[in-house]
Amino acid sequence: MLRLEFAPRFAELDVDFEGFNRLLRASFAQKRKTLANNLRAAGYSAEQIAAAWPAGLPAQVRAEAMPLEAMAALYRELAAVGAGVPAAS
After folding, report:
1. The domain spanning residue 19 has which CATH number?
2. Are 22 and 79 in contact (CB under 8 A)?
3. Long-range contact list for 5-10, CB < 8 A, 24+ apart?
4. pLDDT tens digit sequence for 7-37
5. Residue 87 lies in a domain
6. Which domain holds residue 30?
7. Does residue 85 lie within any of the structural domains?
8. Burial of 23 (0-12, 13-18, 19+ CB in 10 A)
9. Total domain count for the chain?
């Protein structure tokens, strides 16, 4: 018998589970859209996204191309600019 347990990295990434999970769901809502377009569709304004966008990240990046650490940084920056997280769907 083999049992695998995954250690959550929420504390290491400095994110809360529920908010980060909602951001991830919004980011992957439509796989053919760019990350910024998915976030706009989730209720973030273009200004909030631009203010929180990590330096060096291409504007046309898709969610699946983002490392987890960069996604966590985007989540923290969105919270810092007062964007909150999208409502649960």
Report:
1. 1.10.8.100
2. no
3. 9/68
4. 788 888 999 989 999 999 999 999 899 999 9
5. no
6. 15-80
7. no
8. buried
9. 1
